[in-house]
Design brief:
CATH superfamily of the domain at 10-98 and 168-251 in chain B: P-loop containing nucleotide triphosphate hydrolases
Order of helices and strands of chain B: EEEHEEHEHHHEHEHEEHH
Number of helices of chain B: 9
Radius of gyration of chain B: 18 Å
Oligomer: heterotrimer
Structural class of chain B: alpha/beta
CATH superfamily of chain A: MetI-like
Largest sheet of chain A: none
CATH architecture of the domain at 10-98 and 168-251 in chain B: 3-Layer(aba) Sandwich
CATH topology of the domain at 10-98 and 168-251 in chain B: Rossmann fold
CATH topology of chain A: MetI-like fold
Order of helices and strands of chain A: HHHHHHHH
Strand content of chain A: under 5%
Distance between the termini of chain A: 57 Å
Shape of chain B: globular
Chains: A mainly alpha, B alpha/beta, C mainly alpha
Largest interface: A-C, 39 and 39 residues
Chain lengths: ~210, ~250, ~220
């Protein structure tokens, strides 16, 4: 058994933490862009598109993220693509985030009183103009707190990428645990690092929500 | 304040009551004695402290100075058991009814007797049915509160308070939240209770009702009892300019 | 052309059924215990002394800001170092209960805090004890208000239990793992199991929406 100093462990975990952050940002930004597109589809007049988005959300919200990761991983392999765990995880988490974000934002748009739609229609604005100038600016204010809150969910979700072999914080923790035979130490460390990453975001999200309601 | 003609045992005995909300003094020294079977109506402008005084009597509000005794027992805010004993003697009806939304009308009336007085369910049910009949709602035992009109809800609230067989009933603007056409049915029930000898202390804006039913009317102004006396005296021969102004504002 | 062979996976239906059974049992136990724990914690956060409030708050924030898989690994791999060695199933239930408990605490707390003040005053005026007020007047309508959020959280924990396969619990996702390695049909195995999870989520939601008004927050 090789002796690792606490400092060695810490730096190793920090290195892996970078990948957790990177994957989270890819999923958040990518998911946000896709989610916004899905949002516009959801509110468009095309019933087929709206229903398809509803189903898309149902599937991602009604199935385990772990299964989604496996399906993307093995699915991409079937399609002949040379998949690294990072690419699989990035694609899967992006789609996962897009489903949840579009649903969160849909709720925020629905929270805008009907009167706003009626007023802007009466002023002869078309759908895109209504969304862009009247509805979305107001919905944005409502959406900011839960969106920040969901980033925390994404960060926690990246932990599952360890199962398909991606070396992020959780995988690094497993490796440390196996190498040092000190699982208690390893997982405590890992837990604290996730906490350090997530708690400030959770706190900020709560503050944003409190300020909105005040 | 006109002193009582003969010293009687006061069921509710308030002496020198002072109450503040933060820095604002809302009750500035209240002396009031209410005798058994007496009906007392408290009138006055909003902010005069009427509801606060009422809420002090059953301990929903605490007070800083003075004493308050019900049926000889002084109020002790720190003793939770004593407060619960008090609240079995003193019932309250609220402006916003406060019925329990997840229980039917009958079960609203049954709840406290079964829990506080350990009444067996069947007996509580029979009593609740009788009380609902007494307030004119005998057929509505199984209705949920959201299926009842405001007047019906308030009558259920009265039945609920009566289920505990209180000696005093406090009514805090019980018709103020009702549509005008529903006020009558509630006042009818209160009048019936007065005729049956219930001791009532009501804060109300219904002057015609106060005139008809009360033994005594108390006019409060800026945290003090400004004038008190029989309905005839208060409504027909107001002594102070504040009371005269209050009554004339009502007439407009 | 990609060839799919779902049939060979479906012949493993006994293993799928066993896995499904364990997932359902884990979820059922965790839902009940987690909801009870969450309600107790919500009460503590609202009415407890300062030390209790801070302890519960710390527990809630810790669980909500760390991944479930780490909580599970900590309990199963980490606790034995402190002398607490748990079986796979017990570790899963413990992790799921503690996880749901933290989220349920916040959900129930929100429900309790939206109790109209008049309800408390009415209960007080009827001489009910604090416990009677909490259990008979405050809690039932509060549960009714937050039921959809609580049901959603139970389903989230159920879907999250897929991770329990990583410590070899023989639940549904582990069934997929085993079938996948047995039949070499990974994609088909996981697709079928994913569909089962989806149907299970829909069924559990319907069941809890049916059970809630009838047995939990009864309106009588």
């Amino acid at each position: 058994m090789v002796q690792f100093s606490l400092w060695d462990i810490f730096t190793f975990l920090l290195g892996a933490l970078r990948w957790t952050v990177a994957l989270s940002l890819i999923a958040f930004i990518g998911g946000g862009l896709v989610g916004m597109g899905l949002l516009l589809l959801r509110f468009s007049k095309l019933r087929a598109a709206a229903t398809a988005v509803a189903w898309y959300v149902q599937i991602f919200q009604g199935t385990p993220l772990l299964m989604q990761l496996f399906l993307v991983y093995f699915g991409l392999a079937l399609l002949g693509m040379d998949t690294s765990p990072l690419v699989s995880a990035a694609i899967c988490l992006t789609l996962y985030a897009s489903a949840y974000l579009t649903e969160i934002w849909r709720g925020c748009v629905n929270a805008i009183p009907k009167g706003q739609w009626e007023a802007s229609t009466s002023l002869a604005l078309n759908f895109t103009q209504q969304m862009r100038h009247v509805i979305l600016p107001q919905a944005l204010r409502v959406a900011i707190a839960p969106t920040v809150g969901f980033l925390v969910q994404i960060i926690k979700g990246t932990a599952l990428a360890s199962v398909i072999g991606f070396v992020e914080l959780t995988k690094a923790g497993q490796m440390i645990s196996n190498a040092t035979y000190q699982p208690f130490l390893a997982y405590t460390f890992v837990g604290l690092l996730y906490f350090a990453l997530c708690y400030p975001l959770s706190w900020w999200s709560q503050r944003l929500e409190n300020r909105r309601l005040a | 304040m006109t002193p009582s003609s003969t010293p009687r045992f006061a069921l509710v005995d308030i002496r020198g009551l002072h109450k503040s909300f933060g820095v604002t003094e809302v009750l500035k020294g209240i002396d009031l004695q209410v005798g058994r079977k007496e009906v007392v109506c408290i009138i006055g402008k909003s902010g005069s402290g009427k509801s606060t005084l009422l809420r002090c009597i059953n301990g929903l509000e605490t007070f800083e100075r003075g004493s308050l005794a019900v049926d000889g027992q002084t109020l002790q805010h720190s003793d939770a058991n004593a407060m619960r004993e008090l609240r079995q003697q003193v019932g309250m009806i609220f402006q916003s009814f406060n019925l329990f939304p997840h229980l039917s009308a009958g079960r609203n009336v049954m709840l406290a007797p079964t829990l506080v007085k350990d009444l067996p369910k069947e007996e509580a049910r029979t009593r609740a049915q009788a009380l609902l009949e007494r307030v004119g709602l005998g057929s509505l035992f199984d209705r949920m509160p959201d299926q009842l009109s405001g007047g019906q809800q308030q009558r259920v609230a009265i039945a609920r308070a009566l289920a505990m067989a209180p000696t005093v009933l406090l009514c805090d603007e019980i018709t103020s939240a009702l549509d005008p056409e529903l006020v009558g049915e509630v006042l009818q029930v209160v009048e019936m209770l007065a005729d049956e000898g219930m001791t009532l202390i009501l804060v109300t804006h219904e002057m015609a009702f106060a005139r008809k039913v009360s033994d005594r009317v108390v006019f409060m102004h800026q945290g003090l009892i400004h004038e008190a006396g029989t309905p005839d005296k208060i409504f027909n021969r107001p002594q102070t300019p504040e009371l005269r102004q209050f009554l004339s504002a009502l007439r407009d | 052309m990609i060839e799919f062979n779902f049939f060979v996976v479906l012949t493993q239906w006994p293993m799928l059924l066993r896995g499904l059974g364990l997932t359902v049992v884990l979820t059922a136990i965790s839902a009940v215990l987690g909801a009870l724990l969450g309600t107790a914690c919500a009460w503590a956060r609202l009415h407890g002394g300062p030390i209790l409030k801070r302890t519960v708050g710390g527990y809630v924030e810790l669980v909500r800001n760390t991944p479930f898989i780490i909580q599970l690994f900590f309990i199963f791999f980490g606790l034995p170092s402190l002398g607490l060695r748990l079986s796979v199933e017990v570790a899963c239930v413990l992790a799921m209960v503690l996880n749901l408990g933290a989220y349920a605490c916040e959900i129930v707390r929100a429900g309790l805090q939206t109790t109209p003040k008049g309800q408390l005053e009415a209960a007080m005026s009827l001489a009910l004890t604090p416990w009677q007020t909490f259990s008979r007047v405050v809690l039932p309508p509060a549960l009714a208000r937050i039921w959809p959020a609580l049901v959603s959280q139970i389903i989230i924990v159920m879907l999250g239990s897929a991770v329990c396969g990583q410590i070899s619990a023989e639940e549904l996702s582990q069934a997929a793992n085993l079938i996948s390695s047995r039949t070499f049909r990974s994609f088909e195995s996981y697709i079928i199991v994913t569909v089962i999870y989806l149907l299970l989520a829909i069924a559990v939601r319907q069941l809890l929406y049916w059970v809630g008004p009838r047995f939990i927050f009864v309106s009588r």
